[in-house]
Structures are given as structure tokens and as C-alpha cells.
Amino acid sequence: MSAPKKVVLAYSGGLDTSIILKWLQTEYGCEVVTFTADLGQGEELEPARAKAELMGASSIYIEDVREEFVRDFVFPMFRANALYEGLYLLGTSIARPLISKRLVEIAQIEGADAVAHGATGKGNDQVRFELAAYALNPDITVIAPWREWDLTSRTKLIDFAEKNQIPIAKDKRGEAPFSVDANLLHTSSEGKVLEDPAIEAPNYVYQRTVSPEDAPDTPEYVEIGFQAGDAVSINGVDMSPATVLTELNRLGGQHGIGRLDLVEGRFVGMKSRGIYETPGGTLLLEAHRAIESITLDRGAAHLKDELMPKYAELIYNGFWFSPEREMLQALIDKSQEHVTGTVRLKIYKGSAQTVGRWSDYSLYSEAHVTFEDDAGAYDQKDAAGFIQLNALRLKLLAARKDRKG
Questions:
Q1: H or E segment at 264?
Q2: Is 125 a catalytic residue?
Q3: Residue of 44 and 259 predicted with greater confidence
Q4: Domain 180-296+338-358 has CATH 3.90.1260.10
């Protein structure tokens, strides 16, 4: 490819992306525009601005995208009850398409001919960033320095930083104990002290949740209100999407909710071990399934559950902007038209249990399921014919078996 003249870089302000900023300038002699997203990672972002200014970024974008993140990415995903490999709530995966979307939009605003990211050549994020970028602008050039440069060790990275007067935090001069990705939905920790899956993760890895053993000895109850599949209130107080998730993180975190030690199958082929904390998301998933249990028809609910692994895999593999994900989303959103009501959860020492759920759209009929007199709501004799018709093929199979001996 021809050397880019202006590049928009996904910039955290950390050592790696600061090195990438300087590397782009020296390798290509190009202007670098930085984009830093406030996704609720819980870090002060103004230092990233100061660092980008110090290093000669031609333009600096720092944006609070928390509401957009939860409203347009997290909530649609949770309508599907999405879990990758049955466990992972996709906290890192769902943030990447939003970052890529803004990179492409800023590139258009700035007249840039390329975007760049700091994902390594071993992970999933490179795939997610780039598939999203190409889906939104097929002509964009994507630069992935980790796949191009010869800075293949921490020592070489530090040397490059020192030669180019890039500020290095003192703890970055040695080996970091593990790497962290965080946003409003979760924290993800992997690498170094976590690389041996046989060894329990040290407690200092956890940043968003207390240990369940140290959680309060008294249970806490919380009521989550839903409208068309999305959480809209907590304990009767209406809240914006990001505010709902923030408050659920607080409640779940203080009760040790949402810890996961997972070995997962990466899209690129290898397995990796990660420690995830998703306190608010864990509460949200429990509550959403509970409100669906009384508002979704059995056929619709079972079809959703059959499709969910495919939907979750599409997000994990970076296909948020694919037609198949959008098709599944349309089906999922149709199913949520009457998923409205309230769920009461009991949260205690690492567990979240549904203890109540109610809705004006409930399909639950006490008259039909009562063990008392049902006043003619259900004729139990009808079940005999239902069973005989369903048994017919089983009887025919059994008769054939008897004939064949």
C-alpha cells in the first residue's frame, strides 16, 4: 500500500498506543489523529489528551460514548441473552464495533486515508476492529502495527519509548503482571500471572467486585424494570441505559457478583484464559431471562435459545455489522415487543436469584396451573388425546422393533 498521509489511531494513552502514535509518525511520516473513547472504563481520560498533545497528534478526539455504547450495543445484545461458549457475556467483543465506527467517522471528518489500532496479531480484537471498519468503509486502509513492526518484546518497546522520549510509567519498566481491558460492561484480565489455567487467579486481579467471602452477610433485594426487553428502571427510579448499568455494577460489585474464570476458544484458533468481571451484566441477564419467562411464548423463547449461540459467536468473531447479525437482531427485537414488567432479584455473596416477576403482558395463568379447583379453565381429560397422538410414532417404532426381533 502507499504510505498514508493521515491516520486516525484508537488511542488509550497507555504505553503501547503511545508507542504506536510515534511509530506511525516515524515509519510513515504521516499526521496522526487520536481517538479516545470513554466507554466507562473508570479511568481519567484527560491525561491521554495531554500525552497526545505532547507527542504531536494533529487532532485529538476524546468522547463520552457510554450512553451510545449501552443503548445501541449492550442492550440489543442482552435482548438475545447472548453468551459465548455458554459463559462469556462478550464485554470486550461488544465494544469494538463502536470504536471502529467512530474511527471511520472521524477519518471521514478529518480527510484521513487510514485508521490504526493497537491489537496484537494473536488476538480477536484485530479481527473485530478490521471487519467492522471494512463493513463501514470498504475503501479504508487499516494499519495494525503489531503485525508490521519489529518491536517484538517488552524490552524493545521500552527502548523505542526511551529513544523517542515517550513517558513511561515506572511500573511499565518491568513486566506487567497481566493486561486489562475495561468498559462499562466488564473488566477483562489476561496474560502473565494468568497464563497457567491450572493456577487460581490471585485476588488482586479483581478490580470491580469484592470477593464473595467478603461480601455483606445480609442479602439485598433489587427490582429491575423492563420496557420492550431493555432495563429502564431500578427500584422504581427511571434511568438512562448507561446509568442503569452503572448502578447494577455498583450493586453487583459490592456483593461479589459476576466473576468468571474462563478458558475460551479464540477466533484465530488458540485457547486463552481470561478473568472477567461483569457484575451489572450478570444481574441484567438473570433479570431479563426472568421477565421473558412470563412474557415470551414457549415457541418464541425456545427459538431464541436455539439461535443465541450463533448470535453470540457472530459478535465474538467481529461480525456485528454483518447482514446475518442484523437479520437475527430483527428477529430478536420482534420477540421483545411484550417483554415489559418488573423483576425482583435477591443478591447475596456472589449469587443473583430471581424471587419475583410481574408484568401486564404476562402469559402466566394461575387459573390454568393451580392445584386447587380450576373452575373449568382446563379440562384434564384433553391431555389423553394429546398424549396418544404424540405417542403414535413411538408405538409404531416399538412395533417395528418387535417384528424384527
A1: strand 259-265
A2: yes
A3: 259
A4: yes
